[in-house]
Design a protein that fits this description.
Length: 333
Amino acid sequence: MPRPLARVLTLLELLQSGGIRTVSELADRLNVDERTVRRYAQQLVDLDVPVESVRGRYGGYRLAPGFRMPPLMLSDDEALAVLLGLVAGRRSGLTVATDTASETAAAKIRRVLPERLRRRLEAVLGSLAFTDPPGTAAVAPEPAILLPIADAVHHHRPISIRYTAGDGRRSERTLHPYGVVAHSGKWYMTAADLSTGEDRNFRLDRITAVRTLSGSFEPPPGIDAASRVLTGLAAAPYRHEVTLRIEGTAEQIHTRLPAGIAIVAELPSPDGADPATQGWCRVELRAERLDWLPAVLASMDRPFVIERPEELRGLVAAFAERLADFARRSPPP
């Protein structure tokens, strides 16, 4: 939205809050001079908004008594916030409204939005995937970043981004974006990095600029953006590489080791094995620390074999000894 128009709408919002607003107060809130405030007020009058000028020592501007704006008059940021709130709330189970109520509310908002903004928001919602409900405070993406990325995903257009990696290194990359995923309070884009020829995940809060390029690309068939992000997070480089074999299904193991942490692959049953016998899975994960793993493995209550690292064996044995020691203790007199 052009900045002058955004300020005119901000002026209207300030006047809608009620009372008389002095010109100096409005100039300070809008970060403009008083002459510009008067020009903005006249623009509202030209749009048939009944802005009244009040003279005197405490004069300024106010809206005519009884005036009500149409039900919705949203900026790009506000419309995006409302629609994403409805979708995310329904997806995560945080909203008290029924699914039908959320869907009808979102449909009403879409109907009254300008065509340009509606198309952009439809691109966001069509390209967005969710994994698990967030467990930490969410890092909201900037609409100026999310909107063009989602539009590029929707229309299969290449983009150029400026990116700051976790270690502070800055780079400019050309990408073929496949999807946008919200996971554990953070937003990710999964894309093909043309400079390296590899598929990668990018945190949206680390992208400082997005530019849509000419041309188009054909994404891989049947692409699952959420699975790509989870697999990429589980395979991210950390200090320790852990490989386990755990008895059980992938679904059972993921209840304690989510897909964003561990890569789980079911192993074929050996020849002659009893079909009723529980199968085994190979589990691979990476971690900066190992001290949390013994408790997780114990909570599964399933047979497991540690393939690597050797250090984990000692941590599991020490954890088992502590539990045995606690179990032998008698209650105090």
